[in-house]
Amino acid sequence: MKVLRFILQKEFRQIFRDKTILAMMFVMPTVQLIVMPLAMNFDVKNVNISLVDHDHSTYSQKLISKIASSGYFRIISSDFSFKEALMHIEKEEADLVVEIPSGFERNLVRDGAQKLAVSVDAINGSKASIGGSYLNTVISDFNAGIDINIRNINKTPSGVIDISFRNWFNPMAEYKYYIVPGILVLLLTMIGGFMTALNIVREKEVGTIEQINVTPIKKWEFILGKLIPFWVIGMTVFSIGLVVCFVVYRIVPEGSIALIYLIASVYLIALLGFGLLISTYSDNQVQAMFVAFFFMMIFMLMSGLFTSIDSMPTWARIISNLTPVTHFIKVVRMIVLKGSGFEEVKTELCYILAFAFVLNGWAIWNYRKTN
Amino acid sequence: MEEKAIICKELTKQFGDFYAVNKISFEVSKGEIFGFLGANGAGKTTAMRILCGLSYPSSGTASVAGFDVYRQQESIKKNIGYMSQKFSLYENLTVLENIEFFGGVYGVSRKEIKERSNDLLETLGLQKESRKMVGELPLGWKQKLAFSVAIFHRPKIVFLDEPTGGVDPVTRRQFWDMIYEAAASGITVFVTTHYMDEAEYCNRISVMVDGRVEALDTPANLKHQFSADTIDEVFYQLARGAKRSAD
Amino acid sequence: MKQLFVFIRKEFFHVFRDRRTLLIMFGLPVVQILLFGFALTNEVKNAHIVISDNSGDVQTLQIINKIRASSYFTVEESVLNYKAIEKAFRRGEVKCALIFPAHFSEDLKHGGKTQVQIIADGSDPNTAKTIINYLTAIITDYQQQSSSSGLAYRIIPETRMLYNEEGNGSLNFIPGVMALILMIVCTALTSVSVVKEKELGTMEILLVSPFKPVLVLIAKAVPYLVLSFANFTLIVLLSVFVLDVEIKGSVILLFVESTLFIITCLSLGLLISNATSSQQTALLLSLMGMMLPTMIFTGFMFPLENMPWIFRMISNIVPAHWYFLIIKAVMLKGLGFEYIWKETLILIGMTIALLGIALKNFKIRL
Questions:
Q1: A26 and A58, same domain (yes or no)
Q2: What is the ipTM of this complex?
Q3: Which residues of C, range 236-295, sit inside 8 Å of A by Cβ?
Q4: Count of H-run helices and E-run strands, chain C
Q5: I want to staple A52 with a disulfide (CB 3.0 to 4.6 A). Which of A94, A99, A271, B19 is the partner?
Q6: Does residue A36 carry a pLDDT above 60?
Q7: CB contact, 8 Å: B104 with chain A?
């Protein structure tokens, strides 16, 4: 125990001596947490439309004004031909082209149905599909509003199913409540993972590890000496993050803060163990960093931070479950947004605990003082 | 019978079919300054790493300070000091902080550390630099400091791996004064070196060629045996036959 | 010139000695492409929903069967009260609840009006929105089919997917992944290679050699240029053969533009290496510092239009953003140089600026 105190003293001194790294550890995540969620917004507000109206009739005008007034779209141009309209898509100015064929009104009234050509820029995935579905909604709304239809409906009263919907925990369905806690976790993960991954390997590269290995320091003392300082820093970063969530985004955890901290502390241990594990396997800092980065990338993509895990194929869900970040993001979202209690998060906690034991155990096992 | 600090029998370290250390046997007495000579790549460092408990031998037996190198490495580590070829204090810690850390991990109490480090700084004349980063010190001072830290916890044996590489002659001289002082206080010194004049300062020396100990005796006896005037010549005669090229 | 080749060869040996880093460098694109291509989707599939049918008549059963038939949902039926729903949400097992009131059919027939209620777990707003949309569509559809008259007059939108007739989802991310990987790998490796020499003190040896400092930098950059180029080729091959992406435009133009972008990244790496003094700082800056901003400001994960204006300004100074536009135009839309000359000029300008600052700093250090 006494030896551990000396190790800790040394580690803390070294960390606090390097002001650049220290600043990076605290400032980078804080700034990113403030900035990133503003940028991460899936809400598609302005879908840009290029219109080609070959009909110039009352109905076509009505349809256009309906589209324009729906609030989803911005009509950026009115062109004479599809070819011209396509130019706007090629230049990335427009996302979709709506082409109203000539004889639109006449055919609609005579045949009761008329086709409308919609061309979407299908490379801009989210925008195209969301814009397309917005347009469908607007058009079916328009259909119901065509005066002849209204008269029909009134004549034959068939029932109307009124669909009401509500979003619990987040009535306005705002994306920030979802993404901010996720980003906080991600940043914490990066800091913890990268810093520890670099740490032991740095001693290896400089050669001081030899000097440590020839002392009677015990393996667990050494690993613990490396873990604790970064654990303290990680918890501090996490706390700063929670404050930022509150100050900038007005996100207050619904559930117990103590529970969040309990799980965060276990999670950090797991994560630092992961960093140390990489550190014990790597020969130099570049290698450690790249290996860490490789896994961080997988963690980030598979953790359900951006995309839903339920929608993944089975093999991917297995990988996702083997990712500690997945469980922590899930727990943080549950507690912060839904106020879930211990009962509801205990399975996830067990996962994280298992990660903590396995990763640290592995790191200690793989760290050899004698080889 | 005189107590032996290090006993080595047929000690071997094999990497694939390469014998880095090939059946070396020797004994080092307590309080002795034992020189370990050899060209680059002869296997000195590997042998020393085994004795320090940093590396497992492939076969043979060895004991250091009475502890077995296979099973009792941690006990060995408690009783030795080590100063490696690469400079191995923390450059981004101050002189005092380095002393405190290494003293601490060997279990020296804080009170003791304080007293001893005061004495140490005084002998080294480093009082003014005590709060300077080690990285800012000139190499010679660093090496002297590293040696002092290696024997700070009063080990039974200290291993020095080319401790005076790149150091000016005056500092080397001072360094050897420190070694003598340590030996006089009962610490066994096991030192590797490239400088043949330094070899003359040792009580006994061994010369390693291609993983084997080819000669072992006092400097005077060796010169006599090889009918040479200097150790340099002895070394040259032995090393000339080496098959391994220097790295 | 001969000296330069000798020097470049030495750098190559350096790079190839570290197999693990090399493995990661090529493993990154492979894994990313596989994950993006086969694991990640913005669509909602197999979302767990609970249906609480308090009516249990023919019509509710018909609607439930329709919902079951869709691939979006995994349906569980049970009678639930709000408390139980909330609990299920808290545990995160269920994403949405659909509640049919008692006397659903009767109300519909006699009163002409009835209600269904959808309660979604809004903590995941995107999924919630999508589920609500799907459910609403299914119910509306059912209603339209069952109502005797239907709508007499209807406009039917016919949607054409431009550039991507088959709806290959990979097209959305391939350009982004390319930009991201090249940006990060090139920048990080280059920056470290110079800082490492600084840290070890070998840089000084190089600088006192009769070598021009510019040549030192060139020699350092060439291996990474070659590697990045190989990396890029790998991504293109994977996209074509694994993800069935069709390269619509000129392959030569694609490679030329990519080489330009790689040089931009190398210049950025050199700049970082000049500004930092330890490998640790350089690595943290180029990997941790760059990953999220690149992902975001390139515009491939989140639409740039939605961002505050300041972010759109920032995205203009992110080289990856311009490269992303170029790749999209050339590779996926099959457009020629006349459409991307502006972007190309901007990238060239950035490269010259970055390289200029890097070289200037480098000389000052002398």
A1: no
A2: 0.83
A3: 276, 278-281, 283-285, 287-289, 291-293
A4: 15, 5
A5: A99
A6: yes
A7: yes
